[in-house]
Amino acid sequence: MTHINMATIDLNLLRTFVVIWEHRSLTIAADRLHLSQPAVSHALRRLRDVFDDPLFVRTATSMEPTDAAIRLHGPIEHALIIIQSALMMFSNFEPKTADRTFRISMSDMSQLYVLPTMMEVLSREAPNVRVDVLQMPIEQLAMALRKGDVDIAVGYLVEPGEECIYENLLDDEFICLLRKDHPFQEDELSIQDILALRYVDVSSNITGHGLTADAAFGKAGIAREIALKVPNFTIAPKIVANTDLALILPRAIAIQLNRDQRYRLLSLPIELPSISVGLYCHRRFLSDAGITWLRGLFISLFASGSHTGAHIK
Length: 313
Prior knowledge:
- This protein is of the alpha/beta class.
- 44% of the residues lie in helices and 20% in strands.
- It is elongated and about 80 Å long.
- One of its GO terms (molecular function) is DNA binding.
- Belongs to the LysR transcriptional regulatory family.
- InterPro entries: LysR-type_TF, LysR_HTH_N, LysR_subst-bd, WH-like_DNA-bd_sf, WH_DNA-bd_sf.
């Protein structure tokens, strides 16, 4: 590797290097960096010239790092973290004039609860702020928060890590959702009724809510009959509206879905753990004025006892 003059290094190139390393794909890197793929390809060519090494070699399925890239990755990532932390100490955030994109990870269930209200407020309070919503798997989220790939996460996360700050937004309960003209027309569910129903089950690695409900039913010795498993929440209420299938979900979400009175909401005959919906961010970004403002916005809009949170819940 040749001698490298720091004056020739563009920090954006180093950021591009780290993102390519993380995703092993120029297409995904371009999406994460909000650049075109040709721009990322050009940046990689410049990096190759600087380091006199291919850095990443294309295979049938991915861009694999060379030995030189493997040696470079750790020091470059660490240096960028230090620089970013230093810059944040002197940053200001004025919502009315801010031109910034916030990256928020949340499940489609959380999106239904959060986004309509949040975007209405942002359009007034921070008209030039953009939101990039991601659905980051739980096992990847702590690392994404640490690296700054995600600014905040909303939902119920299992063991997000000690490096993450957690703030409770609300506690909710699970209920059973049926279509309004479902054959079951009693006002209360018994355990026998729970066993007799057939269900849509949402199996997602984006949130831990499903795991909590399944564990509680299992502990109570209740084996529900799952007629349909889906990987996300969005389609489940539509299935319930057109079939005799039932859905177990948080009450706050069910209330939103039932604004047109298409469903029946029934309490469960067993006590399930409450659902804690929280806000997560990494300790490294506590000095980021923009993230601090966004956290405050979430708490004011959705925390228990707030006007919006109390109304929806």
